[in-house]
Design a protein that fits this description.
Helices cover about 55% and strands about 15% of the residues. It is an alpha+beta fold.
């Protein structure tokens, strides 16, 4: 992952809600669905696009635009959290001598068992 995106996500998580909203493009739209005429006529759906990282989240489940904005901000924080984490560097390891010996011994036992099934006696 791009280090700039990781740094932007880490910085955004430390911001207050208002500051995080200022970094986002906010769009409102007609949400539709259950909720009656109020929901179907008003632009209560909220779409947030976080400019530094390019993440997009939407919230349409409430009839209130303010409640949907709060839900969208919460979702944005949830989506930013995994972006901010730097994964541990994986280093290759080699099997121990004991594990190699156990593996070889198990292979021999399995082979002897199969050879015993052949019925060459």
């Amino acid at each position: 992952m791009n280090e700039e995106i990781r740094a932007a996500a880490r910085r955004a998580l430390a911001l207050a809600d208002e500051a995080l909203l200022s970094e986002c493009d906010e769009a409102f739209f007609v949400a539709g669905g259950p909720g009656g005429q109020h929901r179907n006529k008003t632009e209560s759906g909220v779409r947030l696009v976080h400019r530094p990282t390019g993440l997009t989240v939407t919230a349409t489940e409430r009839r209130s635009q303010a409640q949907n904005r709060a839900s969208a901000l919460e979702r944005l924080r949830e989506r930013l959290a995994p972006l901010a984490v730097r994964p541990k560097v994986r280093r290759p390891t080699r099997p121990t001598r004991g594990s190699q010996e156990r593996r070889i011994a198990e292979k021999k036992r399995r082979g002897e068992r199969k050879a015993g099934r052949r019925g060459w006696d």
